[in-house]
Amino acid sequence: MKHISEERKEILLRRYGSKSPGAGPGGMKMPGPGGPRPGGPGGPRGAMGGGKPKNTSATINRLLAYIGRDKYKILLVFACVLGSTLTSLAGSYILRPVINNLVSADRSAGEKVGNLAVGILTMAAIYFVGILCSYLQQRIMIGVSQNALIRIREELFHKLQKLPVKYHDTHTHGDIMSRFTNDLDSVGEMLNNTLSQIFSGILTLVGTIILMFVTNWILAIVIIVTIPFLVYMAGTLGKLSRKYYKGQQQALGAVNGYIEETVSGQKVIKVFCHEETTMGEFEFLSDDLRSKQRKAQFFGGIMGPVMGNLSQISYALSATVGGILCLTSNFDIGGLTIFTNYSRQFSRPINELSMQMNTIFAALAGAERVFEVMDEPSEVPDPEDAIEICAEANRVPGARIIRGEVALKNVTFGYVPDKTILKHINVTAEPGQKIAFVGSTGAGKTTITNLINRFYEIEEGQISIDGIDIKKIRKDSLRGNIAMVLQDTHLFSGTVRENIRYGRLDATDEEVIAAAKIASAHSFIERLSDGYDTVLDGDGSNLSQGERQLLNIARAAISKAPILILDEATSSVDTRTEKHIERGMDRLMKNRTTFVIAHRLSTVRNSNLIIVLEHGEIVEQGTHEELLAMGGRYYQLYTGAVELD
Hints:
The protein is an alpha/beta fold. The chain folds into 3 domains: 6-11 and 52-374, ABC transporter type 1, transmembrane domain (ABC transporter transmembrane region fold); 383-481 and 563-573 and 590-645, Rossmann fold, CATH 3.40.50.300; 490-560, P-loop containing nucleotide triphosphate hydrolases (Rossmann fold). 59% of the residues lie in helices and 10% in strands. It contains 22 helices and 14 strands. The chain has a 6-stranded mixed β-sheet, with helices on both faces. A hairpin with an 8-residue loop joins strand 3 (406-413) and strand 4. The protein is elongated and about 120 Å long.
């Protein structure tokens, strides 16, 4: 294996163990749809759930509000926990009269057997009640916790649908997904077991102390003296355990991130012959994980034995002092027996409570991350007098009929306050016209289409459709009348027919086929194993990139939207496929107002108007022939004098 330098090791640990802002799996930057992320190269770091919560009390109150909807069930759970704890303590205490009866010299053998049978039956009845309480407690608590998780999960998902596109552009998909998986799993683990275990541990601890004092106050004081030492040891071991478990999780994340990146990049690794280097780097990360796992497992594993041995010391101490009391103060043998039993189990609830702190901190930190998303501001709501629009009469009752004229008047916009992306843009598209935007990367082409859809709100100026300010149009109505074909295709799990129909759910099968023919997709669909009923998996992984884009175009074709936006729609297909698409596009764009963004200038030659953007400003505009005659920026781009990067 190749030697890994110390500098490279630091880079690996930093890149994969602690991801950089906006990094996706393996620390790679995740580009936003249609171009760079607004506000910078990436979004906030998608940390895993864990660590310490920032606002513990507020988070606890919100979680209690979710489980509080089942407050009667919670009360029943606490009653069952109380019953289970009391029966456990009472079952142990019953041993006192049973043992005293057996060692008594005043009773006959028959009386001893009879009393023993009564004692055994009594203990059996008590423990049966305890088992029943434990069963009911677990059964009811699982139902309560799952109800709370369903509410949180559904509210989180509903919130995501209401968040503006800006949020999705500035947060990685992995970061958002971790809220549904890691964070909610931590919350679920706490709700399932930890709450009832904490209540049970406290009751057991308090009940044990009370019964020890009832049994013998001198021995109780002897045991109480050892409590600070037990608490100190539990806290110290718990702190070390949390520290090394955190390091283990970071190292595990580094290994997983590196594996994910190398698996997805196998072709690149093989092309550049980096197999040896990759294996060496993985071995380093794997060794780092092993080292941290050893410490984490060691300190996590010794908690039980250490606390158990400390309880044995308490047991020996109580047995010694109790024996002396039996000889000198008439302390009964049954009392000594149950007291030594209590002293042995005294450390158990302390140990359990300290061990639960990891789960509690992880759950509260995870809940905080979930609530952070829920507290994000939603999209700007529609005004009460917002209107509906439609391109066809009687399709939407009460909707205003539009022809498709789109006008941008003095539009100025920036994703962040101190950086303006668009500056005083003025463009008017008449119904049925084809408007093309060309320019360098970052010039603001995709930003214009985002503003037309109201994915972002403009700062200055106005965008109107048939003279109606888009801010006065219901957002769902506005977007329902704009069809988009993006550079990044996305297909859903389902049949080809269902994916095309996604553009208009009430479309008939005949309209689906017609849309596929418009997009030049019908012929390849017919060749699929089940034609239009072929099931697509993994975002259409069983199709080529060009075929996926054709389905994307067919989805737009089936929509009766009068406005069409094509954002690099043919960038991912070959030249032959592009010619098929262009013929379909001509049919698709007929009678529709179309905005085209393209790097291939050959695709925009027949546009009614070509807008040349540079640094957020319109530097040239006109038809293909007019712009070539100018000999300016468009001429340079078209002839290759400068590159369209």
